[in-house]
Amino acid sequence: MWLAGAVAVAGIVLAVMALTPDKADAAGTAPTAAAPAPVQVAVTAASARDGGTVDAIRRRGTLRCGVGAVSEYAWRDDTGRMRGFRADFCRALAAVVLDSPDAVEFVSLIASTRFKKLQDGSVDVLVAGVTWTMTREADVGLAFTTPILYDGQGFIARRGSGMERLDDVTTPARVCVIADTTTERNLKAYIRETGLPLTVESRHTQDGTWSAFLSRSCDLITGDRLSLMLARAVRTPDADDYLILPDMISREPLTPAVRGDDPRWESIVRFTIHALLLAEHVGVDQARAAADDAQAETPEARRLLGLDRGAGAAVGLDDAWARRAIATAGHYGELFERTLGNGSRFGLPRGLNALWTDGGLHYPLPLW
């Protein structure tokens, strides 16, 4: 029931997604590995070997969280502490299952190996800008939880290049893209479909694509628009010299993934996201969740805070699991604003990542 209910709602959300440039004025880091040919990977993960991912995490004492290679979503500050949207979500998961938000081992992964690392048990969860696709779910044997960020594939050009939208490309132009991602696959399909004189220049990492673009080995760079906006803010000498084109050539529901053989762990990751979304909807913020004397009146808020019996026992958690996640990361709006939005160095708008009540696509599932 966990998976069926979530997939049904996710299907509705994805079906109505209409990514438009003004709504998703953001750009993305390495999307996700290109839809591969069927991969027959034996499931040798901890969940298959020893009774469950959660049990393995608790015996180990740490959560192994797979994040992308160094990016604006997860980076180490001058003290060595991991910062960013993905890092804080990993900490929320650690708080849920270990009651210790810092009991996280951050594992940096590149697009070409991240699925293998998840399958072989090197990481417990993949929080690395992975696009949820039917092919990946069916062929690679992954379980996708729920989209944590909605995005779409866009492009950046140098201002003054004469390219203000893709239709302006009339002479051969080179496009930098991360290899082994849906971004690369989408780009190749777009070139075939439109016949535009674009040449694909693939690199294995985000650093590699940006280095090539800034050194003028490429005329354009493509990626998730959120990541492109983030990278433009910190990687370019002057962000105003680089134009995010209005074109959007794909839909990218970026979704934490787990192995497909452990529905209990899948449910915990999925509903941790929904707990953060619900907390924003009902007004349970980080300060309130962290307060020893936290109080609430409404049934949903009381259950989020562990004041009334909740549904944690169904997946082996106590009643305070959601409270720990919120106290660690804040509700979804706080998490976004602090790491990506107006409270960060990036200043991105919520756009598609607002709650449905504010014109976005996020809609929290019932937790009880």
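The above is record 1. Record 2 follows with the same two-line structure.
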Amino acid sequence: MSSTRPKVYNFGAGPSALPLSVLEKVQREFLNYENTGMSVMEISHRSKTFENLLNKTKHDFKTLLQVPDNYEILFMQGGGCTQFSAVIYNLLAAKRQQIPEEEEFNPPLDYFVTGSWSAKAADEAKRLYNNVNIVIDVKKSKGSFGSIPPKEEWKLSGSKAAFVYYCDNETINGVEFPFIPDIDPSVPLVCDMSSNILSRKFDVSKFGVIYAGAQKNIGPAGVTVVILQSICR
């Protein structure tokens, strides 16, 4: 089968364009992966072959982003939108473990609303929970999305919050954080990096949870990468 094809420049939001060399390697190994006599689509997910593939993928990803040893890499289904709710359930449970059982438990969830994706995340939080604090809502305060207000305008909950969420790059509205928000260090910082992960170096240790749908900036659709600090498990 010929590997030649017309040269097309793909500027779509997703799926992301893949290097030809990667596609050619997939093509070569699709029928016989690592000389197993089977396609990678056919091998058992319990096999040593798949275990090696998974471990190498995690190792390479951690190396690229210089992920500290106290973080886990998860490959999940459901896209970034599933993480809107998964983050809430899991981090509220983690926060519950830090508070004596006899104390009232209703910590705020802090959300930066800077574009369409963070607005969707905040709406899901409000659907699931009764104490959502909007740190900033740029559309409400400025009339439209398009900027990141200065810290003086933020309304953070401080150490009381179960977590602080933001979307690093709002593709629909053209807004990208040029910095990592400065928050209380005891509170997990949650970030949706679906559209710009692997595009630049950043300090992973400042985050509790990072998630990214692969289809925007990593590879084909169908998997969501979650980088999770062990303390948030």
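The CA atoms of residues 62 and 69 lie 9 Å apart.
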